[in-house]
Every structure is written in structure tokens, then in C-alpha cells.
Amino acid sequence: MRDVLIIAGEASGDLHGAGVAERLRALRPDLPLVGMGGERMAAAGVTLFERADGVVGFVEVLKHLPAHLRLLRRVTSMLRSGRVGLVILIDYPGFNLRVAQAAHAAGVPVLYYITPQVWAWKPGRLKMMARVITKAAVILPFEERLLRDAGVEATFVGHPLLDRALTMPDRAEARRRIGVPADAEVLALFPGSRAQEIERHLAEFEAVARELERRRPGLHVVVSVAPTIRLDAARVPFPMVRAQSFDVLRAADVALCKSGTTTLEAAVAGCPCAVVYKTSRITYAIARRLVTIPHIGLLNVVAGREVAPEFVQDAFTTDAVANALDPLFVAGNPVRERMVQGMAEVRRTLGEPGAASRVAEMAAGMVPREPSA
Fold first, then answer.
1. Beta carbons within 8 Å of 258's beta carbon, 6+ residues apart
2. What is the pTM of this model?
3. What is the tens place of the pLDDT at every residue in 114-155?
4. Which CATH number applies to 164-349?
5. d(CA 223, CA 242)
6. Is CATH 3.40.50.300 the classification given to domain 3-159+354-366?
7. φ, ψ for residue 169, nearest 5 deg
């Protein structure tokens, strides 16, 4: 039986890849799973040939280009060997679209889970995606029609974070799990899941938290740290929490989130938040010319409007963000109530739990069974 090759390039991809791998092993125990990922995928039964270490930004990617090219050559060699029966690509478009091209050239079918965000930037990729992707499993409701109109066989499978939401704790249990006082006001900081995001955001997140501590005596601040991040405790003046994001969001009254999936998690958890992002000036200057949508937080992208306020680059200042977060601590405040209502609407559009199972079923149907001896 030929291998199923699963490629994930960062922490979130490793999580989603593990979910698919677990369900695919249950459906098709005959399929050998190999790939690039992290500890979760390895624990789910994937034999890793490379550990994932995602990077973002134009300048940052250039620094890692030689390593990426070496890895791409290795993956291409695997695809040409005839040992691979299916490639499952998870997010990580800069690298994975090149893998899709190599797989197409080698005659290997491609299932792309969590497709490139062509609705935000680089819409020109759609033509190439239609040529090299066999099937796509998309996680945002509007993506299915967008990709199908471009010729990609796309299926909306629901958002994978809804599976984790099934075991989301209530407020009291969440606070017990992460060790914060039951009666305190709690601010959660989510500065990012990549090392360079931490470097860009940590000091400014701290400044916002200090200002809110000044305004709201007794405020309890926690910093959510991704499992892939090694962060020196001496750099962080607040307790660091390495718990599930939903535990932290359910425990918090308010969150300050780096743009990305955390903003959708906040919506599902019903935790009011502000969305911020800062990158290098070169990366930002390039992105401004390429990005085609008005919002950067996925929460707002899915809503089609600004549910949570956004502060990008120079707009990300201590006072501006603190002013936006301060009223969100007050139960019954109209600003908070409107945001919570908008978040509930977003959650309803994300589909139903079971995304990984649906992707595994798609994958199982794309690899024929070997005839019995």
C-alpha cells in the first residue's frame, strides 16, 4: 500500500493534521501515514520525516528560503518515487502550493485542507489551484462557492475548532484549570504562536495590560503561550498559561488577540476582544498593496463587518487599545453586548463539529484499496 503524505507547516497545522490522521487510521488502518508536522501528528501515528517550524511575513520567509528549498526537493523526490498514493496538504500555502504542483506533475492526487486565503490576497493563485488540487476541504462558509466558481472541487467541512469547543469548560471550571481567582476581573493576552510574532507584540501587549491594571485595580492578567513557543519567564511579568485556548478564553472577561484563528476561538467562546497585529515595515508595506479585504481578524472576515475592533501597525497604540478594551469588562455595557451577539452569529456560520472526520472520509475515498491476495 502506498503512503499518504501529510504536510503541515506550523503548530495549528500539526493540530489539524493530527485530527485527520487519527480518523483516517480508524477508517483505513491499511494506509501508512508519513509526513511533516509536530508532536501531535507523531502521536496520532504519522511517521515524521521532518519537524515543522512555520514562519510568516515576506522578510521572515526569505531568511528561511534555503531550508525550504532543500525540503521541497526532498518532498519532490518522495512524490516521484511512486511510493505516495495521496498528498494531504494543510494550510501553509507558500510551501504547500509548491508541493501541490510537484504532486500534480508526479501524478499524485492532492487533497488540500484549509486552503490558501485567496479571498484576502493573491487571487491569481486560483487558476493554479484549479489545475493542481484534486479536492479541497475548506473551513470558512464562503470559500466553497469561491473555489468552485474558479474550478476547484471544494467542499465546506466546517471549522475544526468546533470539535475542540465540544469540551469547552464553563467559566468556573476554566478558572480552576488555569489557576485564576473565581471573582477577579481577568484579561487574557494572546500575542501569537510564532517566535517572531512574540517579538513584535509582547512588549506592547504588556503596555496595554499595565494601563488596564492602572484603570482597573485588581485586574488579573494571564499570557497564553502556544506549546511550540519557548518563552523566558523573566521576559513576562504576568503568569504564563500553556492551556487550551478555550480554557483561557472561557476564564477571561476580555482578551487581547493577535489576528488569526484566536479571534474565531474568542467568538466561539463568547469572550469579547480586540484584534491587533504588527509586523516589519517592509512586510506591512507589501501587504497593504496585496491584501484585498477590509479586515484582518478572521472573526470580522467571517462576519463581513467589524464585530471586534482592529488595531494594525501604527494604529496599535497603548491608549487606543486600552480604550477599546476597558468598557468590555462591564457586564451589560452596550458595547460588550453588541460584540457578544455578533460573536454568536459568527459561531452559527462556522458549520457543525466533525471537520476532521469529513476530511478523513474524503481522503479515504481518494486512495483505492489494494486487492486481497
1. 190, 191, 192, 197, 201, 275, 276, 277
2. 0.84
3. 999 887 777 789 999 999 999 999 999 999 999 999 999 999
4. 3.40.50.2000
5. 9
6. no
7. -80, 165
